[in-house]
Design a protein that fits this description.
The complex is a heterodimer of chains A (114) and B (112).
Chain A: E1 3-5, E2 10-14, E3 19-21, E4 24-26, E5 32-39, E6 46-52, E7 60-61, E8 64-69, E9 74-79, E10 88-96, E11 103-104, E12 108-113
Parallel strand pairs in A: 2-12
Antiparallel strand pairs in A: 1-4, 3-9, 5-6, 5-10, 7-8, 8-9, 10-11, 10-12
Chain B: E1 4-7, E2 10-13, E3 19-25, E4 31-37, E5 43-51, E6 54-57, E7 64-66, E8 76-78, E9 87-94, E10 102-103, E11 107-111
Parallel strand pairs in B: 2-11
Antiparallel strand pairs in B: 1-3, 3-8, 4-5, 4-9, 5-6, 7-8, 9-10, 9-11
Classes of the chains: A mainly beta (114), B mainly beta (112).
């Protein structure tokens, strides 16, 4: 069975500071991909970053980086230099490579304070 | 520009009525998905389809039906058997083996 756990329902961060959003996963598949999506209040889902289970280096995309610790089955999202526009829901997701299904966590609501 | 179009954006339904949510993609993606999102919660998979004329139930398929007659289209019908249909519905698509899932803008269904 596949499971994604996001233990932080809500978080606050001061503008220009860094913030880490936690994500742990459970899978018996040896190969998988990990994803983070942002959902603003408009409801659209915006893809942020991807990490493959065999990737040796942590993925980075601009201000986003994924802190991947395979042994601990964690895939935390780090947002550097937070901006007011970063206020949104953030979802962690996983796709086992043997299946074309994507599994999502319950999300973390991030509020960036000016 | 390629993308996924969901319609309508807002839909109101009386109890006992069936409604159909449209999802069309021009990305030439093989797989299509329907997710349901309740306030403050994550996405739950309703149905998914990997090829035309084939689809599989997700985790919460009861009270929903789908069809996949064309690669580009994956409509979702919310039937009267769905006891609590008020939610935000997201359609998505991906290529086989792709490392990204592309979403539509969503449809918000409210039962009056």
């Amino acid at each position: 069975a596949q499971k994604i756990t996001q233990t932080q329902p809500g978080m606050f961060v001061q503008e220009k500071e860094a913030v880490t959003l936690d994500c742990t996963y459970d899978t018996s598949d040896p190969s998988y991909g990990l994803f983070w999506y942002k959902q603003p209040s408009s409801g659209e889902m915006i893809f942020l970053i991807y990490q493959g289970s065999y990737d040796q280096q942590n993925a980075t995309e601009g201000r986003y980086s994924l802190n991947f610790q395979k042994a601990r089955k964690s895939a935390n999202l780090v947002i550097s230099a937070s901006q007011l526009g970063d206020s949104a829901m953030y979802f962690c997701a996983m796709r086992p490579y043997n299946f074309n299904k994507f599994y999502f966590g319950s999300g973390t609501k991030l509020n960036v304070k000016p | 520009d390629g993308g996924i179009t969901q319609s309508p954006k807002y839909l109101f339904r009386k109890e006992g009525q069936n409604v159909t949510l449209s999802c069309e993609q021009n990305l030439n993606h093989d797989a299509m998905y329907w997710y349901r999102q309740d306030p403050g919660q994550g996405l739950r998979l309703i149905y998914y389809s990997q090829i035309v004329n084939d689809f599989q139930k997700g985790d919460i398929a009861e009270g929903y039906s789908v069809s996949r007659e064309k690669k580009e289209s994956f409509p979702l019908t919310v039937t009267s058997a769905q006891k609590n249909p008020t939610a935000f519905y997201l359609c998505a698509s991906s290529r086989f083996g792709a490392n990204v899932l592309t979403f539509g803008a969503g449809s918000r269904l409210t039962v009056l």
